[in-house]
Every structure is written in structure tokens, then in C-alpha cells.
Design goal:
The chain has 127 residues and is mostly helical. Helices cover 67% and strands 5% of the residues. The protein has two domains: 65 residues, Arc Repressor Mutant, subunit A, CATH 1.10.10.10; 50 residues, Orthogonal Bundle (Diphtheria Toxin Repressor, domain 2). It is elongated and about 50 Å long.
Length: 127
């Protein structure tokens, strides 16, 4: 059974996941920049994420996702990409708006809706 996560948790895990794809080491400053939030906000969020078993935040400041955290971060990013493709490439929404709105919608859709969008995009060659 999937842990109940909030939009905020998913946003942080997605950000850490994406940063880790680009950089060897993820630090608080990287997450703050990615999410456009202040350092104390990231520090507080990391404490909560650590308590829930989603991240490991070392004393050297490095942030690592646990398997559970990595799974949620990846799933959230996959939904984001799917929705971005639908909004931008299929519906013609501007790139910036599609990116922002995909981020909002990714937290709300069901697995069923996600699968239907995926099938639609595959059928119409928008992978």
C-alpha cells in the first residue's frame, strides 16, 4: 500500500530526484533553488522527509533518497512529463504554462487517469 503523501512531500522528492539525475551530490541549496524556497524551508522539510523515511540527510549536508523516496520522486516526475506532453504537445499550451500546470495537476490525478493519458499519447505517437 502506498504511503499517503502530500503535494509538498511529492514536490520535494521530485526535486531531489531530478537534481540527483544531473549532479553527483544533492545539497540543501540545490533543492532551495529548484523549488524557489528559502533554505530554512528546505531544512524543515528534510527533517520531516527523514522522519518519514524518504531521505537521508547526512551531517555533511548531502541528501540521499531512500528507495521509498526515490520511487515517489520518480513517479511524480513521470506524471509531470506525461501531463506536460499532453498540455504542450497535444493541446498547444505554451511551454511555461504547461510546465507549471503539469506540476499542479500531477498531485491530483488517479492512477487510472494517468494510464488513460499514457495510452492516448502512445496511440497518437506523443511519447
Amino acid at each position: 500500500m502506498k504511503d499517503k503523501t502530500t503535494r509538498s512531500i511529492e514536490d520535494y522528492l521530485e526535486a531531489i530526484y531530478l537534481i540527483k539525475q544531473k549532479k553527483q551530490t544533492v545539497r540543501v541549496i540545490d533543492v532551495a533553488k529548484c523549488l524557489s524556497v528559502k533554505l530554512p524551508s528546505v531544512t524543515g522539510a528534510l527533517k520531516r522527509l527523514s522522519e518519514k523515511g524518504f531521505v537521508i540527510h547526512t551531517s555533511y549536508g548531502e541528501i540521499e533518497l531512500t528507495e521509498k523516496g526515490k520511487q515517489i520522486g520518480k513517479e511524480t516526475w513521470e506524471k509531470h512529463k506525461l501531463l506536460f506532453t499532453l498540455l504542450h504537445k497535444v493541446l498547444g499550451v505554451s511551454e511555461g504554462t504547461a510546465y507549471k500546470e503539469a506540476c499542479l495537476i500531477e498531485h491530483l490525478i488517479s492512477k487510472e487517469t494517468e494510464e488513460k493519458i499514457k495510452q492516448f499519447l502512445e496511440k497518437h505517437n506523443h511519447k
